[in-house]
Every structure is written in structure tokens, then in C-alpha cells.
Amino acid sequence: MKILYFAKIKEVIGKSEDSITINEQTTVKDIVEKLKVINESYKLAFQDLKNIKCSVNCNYIDSFQTKVTNNDEIAFFPPVTGG
Amino acid sequence: MKIIFQTEKLNVEEVLKNFASKNNSSGSVISFLGKVRPSNKKKKIKTMDIEIYEKMALYQTKLALKRLLKEVKIQDYLIMHRYGNLKPGENIIFLVVASEHRKEGFIFIQEILLYFKKKITFWKRENYLDSSKWLDRQS
Question: In what order do the strands lie in the sheet with A17-19?
Fold first, then answer.
């Protein structure tokens, strides 16, 4: 699956996307936990989930317990500041 | 009825002129222009970076419009938002709406701006002389 990062999260991690393979019945929270062990930058980027928004295939998700599949495009980003 | 996200400068005078002329039979044409401010809390802004998740921004804008147009009767609209590196005084967002009466046009502009503040995937970073800062929602 494709994972995208934007704004401050992208800056902290130091890259704009990752590609990973997941098992069935994986939740967004499981993915976050998997990413946090990659290195200190990921750990820092995901330390405060309250200030992180997530989308799956361009739709905002209400809960990090949302299940995802390998065909999904998932994105992590701070609250938007456009307009 | 158009949505445009671009890195090029927004040439609003010409766009407004063409839009108003195209919608000659509308009783009201209302526009809104948002610009980069020269300072924020007394800190001088050198430039502003605007980042976009374009696929989602387009998808969410269309979703917002679908909902809004069920409630507000308008005849035409144009939504333009710039991204990339901008200087103070440059245009960030330009909205223009044509409707039979002004009330619907004002509601449309206000609602679209709220969507951009809450849902549409753009992020701003202000670059000062000696530092830079990603804006949070309250900024």
C-alpha cells in the first residue's frame, strides 16, 4: 500500500511517501505502530496522534481503528490551513 | 463551474472580467480574494510555502460543492487556489460566484472558505528572516 506524508509530518520523517505490504485485517493504528519502529524520526512524527489527520483513498477517517487493504492509498497530515 | 489549483500567479482581474462577461444574465457576481500578509504577530514574512495533496483537495472540493449546491442555488462558480512559494501581497485564493440574487452568492463564498479552512488539503508555512513555521488552524 502507498502511504503519503504532508507538511510537518513529511518534514520530520524526511520523505513524502512509503510503500508497504500489510496483512488482512490491518488497522490504521497497526500501520502507525509499524512505522514508529522504523526510526526516531517516524517515532517523533507520530508521537501525538491527536494532531494528526488521516485519509484513506482521499476520504477522512473518523477512527484510527479503520481497517485498510494493500490497494488503499493512505495519507497522514496535520490539520489543514488552506484558504 | 471550475476548480483550479496552480503554482502560477492568479491573474484575477482578467479572470473576473471574463467570468462576469460569461455570466451576463446573472443578477449578482461576487468575488473573494485572499492574499499573503506581510507579517504575522509582528514577525515579517519573507515568503510563504503552500503545500497541497492535490488528488484529495480536488476530491474534497467536489464533495463539498455537491453538498453545498443542494442547498444554495447559484448559476456559476470558479474556485482558484495557488500553491508553491508565494511572496507577501500575492494572491492565495480567488473565489467568484454568479447567482440570481446576492444572498446565495455570499453564502456560497462563506461556505467554500470554511471548507478550505477545515477540509481541503492545503498547508501553509511562513518563512521569516531567521526561521520558518507551519501554521496551525488558529493562525
Answer: A17-19, A2-5, A73-77, A53-56, A59-60
